[in-house]
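Subject — a protein and its fold
Encoding — discrete vocabulary of local shapes:
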Amino acid sequence: MNHEQAGCCRSRRAMLAGTGAVGVAALTGCATYGQSTAAPPAPAAAPAGSGDPSADPSGSAAAGGGDVGTPALTTLADIPVGGGQIFADAGVVVTQPTAGNIKAYSSTCTHQGCTVTSVADGVITCACHNSVFDIADGSVRSGPAGAPLPAANVTVDGDAIRLA
């Protein structure tokens, strides 16, 4: 092989390497093509009972036992008697075992840390492994969970239910 042939091979290698770099640069430019650089729009206010602790469905802070600076988690009307509602973002389940009797528990199952999935017919259920808890005291009705759901502190202020 003479020097002319060796130079030819180096040129091909350089050309292929350069073509690869140009292709990568082109793809990098395409990755952002058409994407906006503007900030995303602010989220809309969450509806009552959505699990968003920043939503205040009561409309105002009524005088009572709650901290008026704490937004309402939900309202009494949104918690069915004999059932409840899961507020995964706030990490709580709010139940109403009997009319006017509000209870709250951690929404984290004590078996393996899944978020509980439903509240109905007097029980809180975790669908991950089918643990079932009582809405009146958080106790285990059926396993595999071996420990009750820890109680959470909420206050009832008029119709508003707030995390304490």
Summary: Residues 3-31 form the longest helix (29 residues). Residues 1-9, 21-66 have pLDDT under 50 and may be disordered. The chain has two domains: 1-34, 74-163.
